[in-house]
Write a structure and sequence with these properties.
six-stranded mixed sheet; 10 helices
C-alpha cells in the first residue's frame, strides 16, 4: 500500500501466491494486475488477470486489508486475454448490463480480442503452450518462468464487452472523482492498446509498453506483429504528455518510483525499439537477409546493458525479423515481383505483335 500526498490510499499492485484458489488451480498465481483506488462509489480495476478464479482470489486479498466496497469501474488496457480474462471474478454480467459497472477499453478492443482469442484461438493457444512451457513441471529443471513473469493461470477465461470505448488519441475522463487520462497506443504491444494516467497521483499505467524487459515484437504463439517505431513514438508521446509522473506500473512487473528514474526507463526503452527498427532497415536496405541482420546488430551498451532492456522475454533475433515483416521491405519485394512480371508480359506482348505483323 502506498500513501500519496493528500491522504488518499492508492493500491498500485497486490501480489500473492495463493496455495489453493480453486480446485483447478493447485498453485494459482493470483498476481493482481490492477490499479485500484478506493473512492466513495467503489473500486477502479485496471486489467483483470487471465482467469476468473485468480481474479476473485485477488479481490479477496484486497478486502482483507481494505474496506469492502464494490467494484464500479473496469479498465482494459489492451486486447490480450491475460488482461481481460478474469473480469467475471470481479463483476457479473448483470452488474455491467444494469450500468452499475462501467468497462473502459481502447478503440477496436472487441474486434481484436475476438480476432486473436476466438478466430485464431485454438492455434494460438496450442502454440502458446510451447512458447510458455505450460506442461513443464514448475521448478529449476522445468518451468522457471514465462519470461514476462512467473506464468499465466489455467483457470476460466471470461470476457465483457466494453461499455465505454476510447476513440480519441488522448481522452480525459473523471471516474468516481478520479481524473483519468487515456492515451491510445495502437499497434504497439497489442493491436488495440492504451495507457492511462492518474493525474491526482502522478501515476502512469503503462499497460505493456514500458516494462522491465525487451518485449516481443513477434511472439512465438502467433500474435500480430508489433510496430517497433510506433512503440517508440508512443512511449515518447507519453513522456511529453505526463512529464511530472512519479510512479509507473506495468501489469506484469513491479512499479518504478521517482520522476528521474521513470523518465530514464521510458527514454531507454523508446531508444531500444527505435534503434532496432532503424538499424534493421538500414541493413535491409544494404541487402542483408533477416538472419544476417540479427547476427550483425549489437545494441549499444548505453541502452543494451540496462537490466530493463535485456531479452528476458523478447529476443533481438526474433524482433529483427518482426521489423522486416512489419515494414514495407516485404511489400517492396512483392512490388518488384509485380513490376518484373508486368515488364516481361509487356515484352512478350510486343514480340507477339511484331511476329503477327
Amino acid at each position: 500500500m502506498i500513501e500519496f500526498p493528500g491522504g488518499d490510499a492508492f493500491a498500485v499492485a497486490v501480489f500473492t501466491r495463493a496455495a489453493r484458489a480453486d480446485a483447478l488451480l493447485p498453485k494459482a498465481e493470483a498476481v493482481i494486475c490492477l490499479a485500484a483506488r478506493m473512492a466513495v462509489a467503489g473500486l477502479i480495476i485496471g486489467d483483470t488477470l487471465m482467469s476468473s478464479e485468480t481474479a476473485a482470489r485477488a479481490l479477496e486479498l484486497y478486502y482483507e486489508h481494505r474496506p469492502k466496497v464494490p467494484v464500479k469501474n473496469i479498465i482494459f488496457t489492451h486486447s490480450h486475454g491475460d488482461h481481460f480474462g478474469g473480469v467475471k471474478g470481479f463483476v457479473t454480467d448483470e452488474e455491467i448490463e444494469s450500468g452499475a459497472v462501467k468497462v473502459y477499453a481502447p478503440d477496436s478492443f472487441t474486434e481484436e480480442a475476438i480476432s486473436e482469442n476466438v478466430l485464431a484461438g485454438t492455434a494460438m493457444t496450442r502454440r502458446g503452450m510451447y512458447m510458455y512451457g505450460s506442461f513443464l513441471k514448475p521448478g529449476p529443471q522445468g518451468q522457471v518462468s514465462g519470461g514476462l513473469g512467473l506464468s499465466t493461470s489455467h483457470g476460466t477465461s471470461t470476457f465483457a464487452v466494453p461499455t465505454d470505448v476510447i476513440t480519441e488519441p488522448v481522452h480525459e475522463e473523471v471516474i468516481d472523482g478520479v481524473r483519468v487520462t487515456f492515451m491510445l497506443a495502437p499497434g504497439t504491444e497489442a493491436p488495440s492498446e492504451m495507457l492511462f494516467y492518474l493525474a491526482d497521483f502522478k501515476a502512469l499505467g503503462s499497460a505493456e509498453d514500458v516494462t522491465h524487459t525487451m518485449h516481443n515484437l513477434y511472439t512465438l504463439r502467433g500474435a500480430k506483429t508489433r510496430d517497433a517505431k510506433a512503440w517508440s513514438d508512443y512511449v515518447r508521446l507519453a513522456m511529453e504528455l505526463f512529464p511530472d509522473v512519479e510512479i509507473i506500473f506495468a501489469q506484469h512487473h513491479w512499479p518504478t518510483w521517482g520522476n528521474d528514474k521513470i523518465l530514464k526507463l521510458m527514454s531507454d526503452q523508446a531508444d531500444l525499439y527505435k534503434y532496432l527498427h532503424d538499424q534493421t532497415l538500414r541493413l535491409a536496405n544494404k541487402g542483408l537477409t533477416p538472419v544476417e541482420i540479427a547476427d550483425q546488430i549489437e545494441v549499444p551498451d548505453a541502452i543494451g546493458k540496462q537490466w530493463y532492456n535485456r531479452g528476458y522475454y523478447g529476443s533481438l533475433s526474433h524482433n529483427v525479423k518482426a521489423i522486416i515483416r512489419r515494414r514495407p521491405v516485404r511489400a517492396a519485394v512483392r512490388f518488384s515481383s509485380v513490376v518484373r512480371s508486368a515488364f516481361w508480359s509487356s515484352v512478350f506482348s510486343f514480340v507477339r505483335r511484331r511476329i503477327s505483323s
